[in-house]
Write a structure and sequence with these properties.
heterodimer, A: about 290 residues, mainly alpha, disordered C terminus, B: about 350 residues, two-stranded antiparallel sheet, two-stranded antiparallel ribbon, globular
């Protein structure tokens, strides 16, 4: 039981971590709350379902199609819609939620409101210390680890990563230093969507795939990002595991926990924010220049 | 005396096209049942009135103080549930339960303020988002008392006749909107709250430096907004005769934001315009049920792309112009200001 709990916690925590890091990146760089973020997870999951069961493709090309397709949709929708209204923060939020609804309705039209699933990426299971762990779960953990290390290396070691962090710190100065801010924003949006798409690809066999699957993770991801400190990648990583610990514990140990897991996660967020108003690792932003 | 009143009326209402349109619109709403008494039309309009109160109260809290509240459904849902519980268990009449529900909603709002007002910007938004969802989890976890997924049904109706219900909802809407509009009127000589709330939104630190207790005014905004949202929730529960978990839904909070931002944030009338355009549109789109929400979302996106400040503000800027010298509002097609004669170009 306790081993199962730990595995479950690590898997959900890893998935949330990928989502939260993307959300934190796009918030940190573009100062926009992207409420359509988890709908890209939904799109990628549907991409897996469609390309394997409907088109009959193998796993590898299916992954490529959903990853590239989702990232493309994300970048295009950013370029077409959000880029021109970036100064109006509330309007941006509204447009992204409307975008999420558009995606949801398109999926409803295309695939109806049935619960779908994607085929397992890998079969079989291994037995470690007397508990069965499916290879799928192990693969998910491995993917999470690789992706997160990749993102960390990209952000801290490469020129592009430094440009992204510079833009996040101060857009105007970054612009003056010869960084093309609009290109950085586009690349960040692409990275964030790709992260959400990877999360979607690995959850497609684990979670049920249906058009409304984006709304619950969205709330959880926002809770994670806020309690970790908005815009802080490290904070969202740690926050993801705190929240997944709470949620899994509630589901495992409380009667009726399935109804209460979001409530408990949010309660933890509220408590942490009362103690530390800027989140665990948040920096108190200076007043933004106008 | 009467002549003076008429003069004021002429200067403050007839000379400003936006207000003239509002007046004609409200008069039209009053005589509407003379034209049609079709229950379905009236039902849509009653619900639109309820949602106008709801959206305007969101604008009051979030637009004016800049505290973007993602959990406005909390007030609505708390009031709906408390009126429902009171009506069901104590058998009280709607005119008792709705104000009590609204006061309970104010209490919930104060509770939300405790953590929320320590936070700023997106942190505040996301904490407020949490509250209705926490409550929703609690409601679903204790179905015996709260009815769980099905909610509490069988409440007393507002009235037996649709027309009477319409004439209950309409004046409540107009009075609530008028009170909130007056409280936020920055030019008013009577109430100072308007200009203080504007100051808090523009620069909270400067407002505090000028000796304004910003926390108190933000709490005031939450209390007033929560009260009116609570009235909307109570009306909604008694009109539909059911209080269900959908009244705490995240989508309802976002609906309030969609309506308000669509019409124009920080303007009160923007929220009214937004609801009166979008809500009937949603109902009309029921003829094509599978495309309904898609079309709705696309319309919202397209309008906001071209008028990011909202449709009502866009129209207002087309028909009204502020005098650069005396700050009086003029019709856009006048060449000189109607009061001081300064050129408007």
């Amino acid at each position: 039981m306790i081993q199962g709990f730990i595995i479950q916690m690590l898997v959900t925590g890893g998935i949330y971590a990928m989502l939260a890091v993307g959300f934190a990146l796009i918030f940190g760089v573009a100062r926009m709350i992207n409420l359509a973020h988890t709908s890209f997870l939904m799109l990628a999951a549907y991409g897996m379902f469609y390309s394997t069961y409907r088109l009959g493709l193998d796993i590898i090309p299916a992954i490529a199609i959903s990853l590239v397709g989702t990232t493309f949709i994300g970048v295009v929708s950013y370029k077409l819609l959000i880029d021109r209204i970036r100064e109006h923060q509330v309007t941006v939020m509204l447009v992204t939620i409307a975008l999420a609804i558009v995606f949801q309705e398109c999926m409803l039209l295309a695939f109806a409101a049935h619960f779908r699933e994607a085929p397992l990426l890998v079969e079989g299971f291994v037995e470690i210390a007397g508990v069965r762990i499916t290879n799928e779960q192990l693969l998910t953990l491995a993917v999470v680890l690789v992706v997160l290390i990749g993102i960390w290396a990209l952000l801290s070691k490469t020129k592009l990563g430094i440009a992204i962090r510079a833009t996040a710190q101060d857009t105007e100065i970054a612009n003056l230093m010869g960084i093309s801010v609009s290109r950085i924003l586009l690349i960040t949006m692409g990275m964030a969507t790709a992260l959400a798409a990877v999360a979607g690809i690995v959850v497609a066999p684990l979670w049920v795939v249906f058009p409304y699957m984006w709304s619950n993770p969205l709330v959880t991801v926002m809770a994670i990002v806020v309690l970790g400190g908005l815009g802080s990648v490290k904070g969202s990583l740690i926050g993801a595991f705190i929240i997944s610990f709470v949620q899994t514990a509630v589901v495992f140990f409380l009667p009726g926990g399935a109804f209460l897991n979001t409530a408990f996660a949010l309660l933890v967020m509220v408590i942490i924010l009362v103690v530390r108003p800027e989140g665990l690792f948040g920096v108190v932003f200076e007043e933004e220049r106008l | 005396m009467l002549r003076r009143l008429f003069k004021d009326f002429q200067g403050d209402v007839l000379a400003i096209p936006g207000r003239l349109i509002a007046l004609i619109f409200f008069l039209f709403l009053f005589i509407l049942p003379l034209i049609t008494q079709e229950p379905y039309t009236l039902r849509i309009l009653i619900l639109a009135n309820v949602f106008v109160i709801f959206a305007v109260s969101w604008d009051f809290i979030s637009g004016y103080t800049g505290q973007i509240n993602f959990g406005h459904a909390l007030f609505f849902g708390v009031a709906a549930y408390s009126t429902a519980l009171l009506g069901k268990h104590l058998g009280l009449q709607p005119w008792v339960t709705i104000p009590i529900g609204a006061i309970v909603a104010v209490g919930a709002g104060m509770l939300m303020c405790l953590p929320a007002l320590r936070l700023r910007g997106p942190y505040l938004s996301l904490v407020t988002l949490a509250f209705p969802l926490i409550l929703l989890g609690v409601i679903k976890a204790f179905p015996d008392f709260t009815g769980g997924e099905h909610g509490i049904s069988g409440l007393p109706a507002l009235s037996d006749s649709r027309v009477v219900e319409y004439y209950i909802a309409l004046p409540i809407m107009i009075v609530s909107v008028f009170i909130m509009w007056k409280l936020t009127d920055a030019k008013s000589a009577l109430v100072r709250t308007g200009i203080i709330l504007h100051a808090i939104r523009e620069d909270e630190i400067a407002a505090r430096a000028s000796g304004i207790n910003t926390i108190r005014y933000k709490m005031f905004a939450f209390a007033v907004g929560g009260f009116f949202a609570g009235i909307a929730g109570g009306l909604y529960a008694h009109f539909l005769r059911i209080a269900g978990p959908s009244s705490l839904d995240m989508m309802l909070s976002f609906q309030a934001i969609i309506w308000t931002v669509f019409g124009g944030i920080v303007s009160i009338y923007g929220a009214v315009v937004g609801v009166y355009i979008l809500y009937p549109l949603m109902e009309f789109l029921r003829v094509i049920p599978e495309l309904r929400i898609l079309i709705f979302a696309v319309i919202v996106i397209v309008i906001l792309l071209f008028m990011p400040e909202g449709i009502a503000v866009w129209i207002r800027d087309k028909i009204e112009r502020e005098c650069p010298r005396c700050k009086l509002t003029n019709v856009a097609w006048r060449r000189t200001c109607r009061a001081c004669g300064a050129s408007l170009y």
